[in-house]
Structure formats: C-alpha cells, structure tokens
Design a protein that fits this description.
DNA binding; Rest_endonuc_II_EcoRII_N; globular; hydrolase; 11 helices; single chain; Restrct_endonuc-II-like
Length: 403
C-alpha cells in the first residue's frame, strides 16, 4: 500500500491528468467484437492526445510511451487511435478512441488480462503543455480491494460503465469536475439547499422530477440509478462548488471540506443500490423481504426473503429461503457474501459489473453463487457466461413464487 499511496501522491499535481475507470470485458478483450484495447472517452483524448482528436483524416493515430507501474513492468509504446470511419464514406461506422498495442512490446499485459475485468484502473497522462500530446502515460491497475478502497476513499465510488477525468490536484482532493455523467438541472426542494438530503430522500424524489421511459426492473434499475447519481451531483455542486471557488484559508479548512465530500460519497455508494432495489421490489409486487437481517455470527446480508422471522424459524422450509447480496462490482468482493446466511443453499448476488472472466465465474458457481445482472448488461459478458446469468425480473418472480 505504501508504494501505491506514494504513486497517488506523485500524481497529485496540475501537470498530471487522471482518467479512472473500471476495466470492462470489452477493454480486456473478453467479449471480442471490433474493439481492441482500452476505450477512452472523447473528453480525455481532447486533453491528453489532441493530435488524434480530429476528422481531418481517417483513423488518426499517435505513439505514446507508457508504463504499468502497478505491476512493475518496463516502459512500452502504445498506440492511441481514433476510429472515425463514421465520418467518411465507405464501410464502417465506428466512432471511438482507444489505446492499443498493449501486448506488442511484451506479452500478457495486465490491461488485457481477462481476470482484471472489473478492476479499477488509473491512467495518469503527463501533460506539461496543454494543447500538446501527453509525454508519458503512467498506469496503475488495482490488484485488490485494499487498493481500490484506498483510492475510492479519496474520489468516491467509480461505477461500472462510468469514469472520472480531471487534473490530479483536483481529482485526488475529491473535487473532480470531469465525471462523464453531468449533474442534472432539475428543481429541488428548498430545504435541500441548507441540508444535504439522505439517499432515501433523493431516491424517493426521483419520480417527481424525472420521467422514466423504461418498464422492466432490469431497465429501470439502470435508468433510475443513473438519474439518481446526476441528481446527487447537482445537490453536491450546490453545497460545495461555491465553497471551492472561494478558496480556502488554511489546509485544515480544505481538509475539512474534502473529508466531508468523501464521507458523503462513501455513504451514498454504500446504500444507493440497495435502496433502489427496495423500491423496485415493491413496485413489482415483491413485498415480503427483510434488509440487514442479523444472521449467524452477527452477519447482515443485504436482503433475506421472505423475511428475517422466517429465516430464524427452524420450522420454515430452507428451500423457500432466498438471500440476495448486492455489490456494485463483484470482482474481489463476491467472496465476502459466502457465509452471510447459513440456511440459504444458493446465494444470489446482484451486480452492475460489466463482465467477469469465465474462470472467476466458474469459481462463483463452485461456491453456489448465482449472478443476478440487469438484462441490458448481459451483452457485456463472455458468450460462455451470458446464458447462465439471471435477470433481475426473473429473480423477483422466483422470490414471489417461493412463498
């Protein structure tokens, strides 16, 4: 951890621009398809590799010296490329930026390792001169929960499918403005201008200001959580943006605000997904469940069905009990749920992670863990895994029927 914390400290400067994401199955090559290499949003390329942010020619590219410091690898040369076929006549409709050639200088790059699907990856571009391409890319791919929790304690939760991008001195202070999900611009209750609302209040307020076009639980969980995060960011900006713009009179004053932001983000990430599921369960007729039920060894699984009382009733049939664990990302976290409810034979685990490796999925199956994944995310999983995933709607139907 010391080397990682020092690496973060070294990047906490205005010459480093930091792009953070969770590696998807598409990034690591698990799902095949046209995409090769790491997908990079347009806004990142415009700052870090502006020479290829153009449609003046087809598929502009550049070379970039890079190093995966987290794994002690030597420097290598990557290719930054803008696949812009959509803007030209002829075949092809791609319009995306990628970093490629991870395995050219040497083999088995951690950036292309299927086992790193879901891992938190930090791409630090050294940009001493804005308007010019980055001179160096330093990369850290987190190797476990300890490293991921360390960085998320500074910047907040990194949701699968989203990313952060900002200058190092702003991002690692918790004040990153460069999330790929912009804040909403809706009317909020006047009371929230003086008091930051709870997660339950924010989620309950969503139908008041957003119109949800989706109709299934699998689609709604993604749509609602996306809008909830945008609303959270709007409220957060209301509370801290003017404070940051004013500046700080002392280091202690700065740290007090930064810690407040960090704690609020951690609190949200810890409960947001569970609250959304509670609302969806009730909306689709699944009324009987208990949250945070105390089980053996003082464990507290996220959901027990049909109730905590039934779980603790020795006469209640074990085959009718269900447990649902909730993890935004399941890589390195899925083992945490194995012993939370001894009476439940098969554990259901709900996640928003965009893909798992076949090897890790086989490990889950061996431990009798069933992945519950929103249907729109199924295409992000390898073919051999996709057919064994459970939709959220199917879980709701099953949990209603077993009673």
């Amino acid at each position: 951890m010391t080397s990682f914390s020092q690496w973060i400290e070294d990047k906490n400067q205005d010459e480093w621009w930091i792009f953070i994401k969770r590696l998807s199955a598409n990034d690591t090559g698990l799902t095949g398809g046209n995409g090769v290499g790491i997908y990079v949003p347009k806004a990142v390329v415009a700052t870090a590799l502006p020479s290829i942010s153009s449609t003046c020619c087809q598929n502009p590219d550049c070379s970039l010296t890079a190093q995966i410091t987290s794994h002690g690898l030597p420097e290598q040369t990557l290719r930054g490329i803008y696949y812009n076929n959509r803007h030209f006549e002829g075949p092809g409709s791609r319009n995306e930026h990628r970093l490629t050639r991870w395995n050219t200088d040497f083999r088995n790059s951690p950036a292309q390792d299927p086992e790193n699907t879901g891992a938190l990856a930090i791409f630090a571009f050294h940009v001493p001169h804005l308007g010019r391409d980055s001179e160096f890319l330093d990369i850290w791919i987190c190797k476990g929960l300890e490293e991921e929790e360390f960085v998320e304690s500074k910047i907040g939760e990194v949701i699968p499918g989203s990313s952060l991008f900002d200058r190092g001195d702003r991002l690692f202070a918790g004040f990153a403005a460069g999330s790929d999900k912009e804040p909403s611009h809706v009317v909020i209750p006047p009371l929230w201008e003086d008091r930051f609302p709870s997660g339950e209040e924010i989620i309950a307020y969503l139908p008041t200001v957003f119109r949800f076009g989706k109709t299934t639980p699998d689609e709604l969980i993604i749509e609602r959580r996306d809008n909830e995060y945008k609303l959270f960011r709007q409220i957060e900006e209301l509370h801290i943006l003017h404070r940051v713009q004013q500046g700080f009179g002392s280091v202690d004053e700065f740290m007090q605000v930064a810690n407040s932001v960090s704690n609020r983000r951690k609190s949200r990430s810890g409960r947001s997904l569970e609250i959304h599921l509670e609302h969806l369960f009730r909306q689709f007729g699944l009324e009987q469940f208990s949250t945070q039920c105390r089980t053996e060894g003082n464990k507290r699984p996220d959901f027990i069905f049909p109730s905590c009382a039934d779980y603790h009733d020795p006469a209640y049939p074990e085959q009718n009990l269900r447990m649902l664990a909730v993890k935004t990302t399941c890589k390195d976290r899925w083992r945490q749920v194995l012993n939370e409810a001894n009476r439940v034979e098969q554990i259901h685990l709900f996640t928003l992670q965009e893909g798992v490796s076949p090897h890790q999925f086989a490990e889950m199956k061996d431990e009798n863990v069933k992945l519950v994944v929103p249907k729109p995310l199924h295409t992000k999983y390898p073919d051999e895994v996709r057919g064994q995933l459970m939709m959220l709607n199917d879980f709701i139907v099953e949990a209603k029927d077993v009673r």
